[in-house]
Design goal:
298 residues, alpha/beta, Enolase-like, domain 1, TIM Barrel, 2 domains, 8-stranded parallel β-sheet, 3-stranded antiparallel β-sheet, 11 helices
Length: 298
């Protein structure tokens, strides 16, 4: 995790990002990209200018969210008011069941079977057995699946059928982003959601016909500013929206919660997968995640 901090000498704004190796990002590279913006910001580069000064990605996300936080603290108003957004409410978030043997995944699911929404990681041989084991262990939870680009055109139909038989309601990124054209010719028994195939707003149009939903993550869009533009366009194009995250602290979840107010599926359980969250972190109770306080962000 990398944190960007902006200060005007009186107020301080923070934003957190998680570099993702899948997109060629490293912590050192992201930190250097953020540092390279020191002089432009010192000369007056603002949040609007940041959108063209940096490409989408983790580095811009951290700075963009730090700008939002700083602007909110300067104005003495919450970020949702600055953005013309409704008052955020508590949302049901998914809880992740990590990829493992069917037996281990069933044990993990049984421990959280009372949660409303479970996200099951798949992407290997015998995935039909895995999802059946999880369903048996958590019979009342809504299940979504993240295949992590792990299926192929050859096994796609069988895996979709196995998930449908277990009542799965959505599947993230079943095929590699480079091979997802096959989805256009596949009968989709379940809503299929783009993750690695979708980044910022300009990537949406090419996904029509292949996907039913898109996963908006601030580390991909390059921040809250772009994410708000992106969700509006995704809705206009007819996509359902999922708002997801990397494994990160509540500081990274707080701005994503503002976008998630309009999402069909919310997957913001990152802090629950850490040994320890930061001070003033989000409140998680049962399946709900509550909006941030000003002490944390925004």
């Amino acid at each position: 995790m990398v944190v960007a901090t902006l200060s005007d000498g009186r107020q301080r704004g923070r934003g957190e990002c998680v570099p993702y190796g899948r997109y060629g990002e490293t912590a050192a590279g992201v930190a250097a990209a953020i540092e390279a913006m020191r002089d432009p910001i010192g000369r007056g580069l603002d949040r609007a200018g940041l959108q063209s000064a940096m490409p989408p990605g983790a580095a811009r996300n951290a700075l963009d969210c730090a700008f939002w936080d700083l602007e909110a603290k300067r104005a003495g108003k919450p970020a949702h008011l600055l953005g013309g957004l409704p008052v955020p409410r508590a949302l049901t978030t998914a809880y992740t069941i990590s990829f493992d043997t069917p037996e281990a995944m069933a044990r993990a699911a049984a421990k959280v079977a009372s949660r409303a929404l479970l996200k099951v990681k798949l992407g290997g041989e015998n995935d039909a057995v895995r999802i059946a084991a999880v369903r048996a262990a958590a019979p009342r939870a809504e299940l979504i699946v993240d295949a992590n680009e792990g299926w192929t055109a050859a096994n796609l139909a069988d895996n979709l059928a196995a998930c449908a038989a277990c009542g799965v309601t959505l599947i993230e990124q079943p095929l590699p982003a480079s091979d997802d054209a096959a989805l256009a010719d596949t009968a989709r028994l379940i809503s299929v959601c783009a993750d690695e195939s979708v980044h910022a707003t300009d990537s949406l149009a090419a996904l029509r016909g292949r996907y039913d939903a898109v996963n908006i993550k601030l580390d991909k869009t390059g921040g809250l500013t772009e994410a708000l533009v992106m969700i509006a366009k995704a809705e206009r194009l007819g996509f359902d929206v999922m708002v997801g995250c990397m494994v990160a602290t509540s500081l990274a979840m707080a701005p994503a919660l503002l976008v998630a107010q309009r999402a069909r599926v919310v997957d913001l359980d990152g802090p629950l997968l850490l040994a320890r969250d930061r001070a003033d972190g989000l409140r998680y109770q049962d399946s709900l995640v509550y909006p941030a306080t000003a002490a944390l962000w925004g």
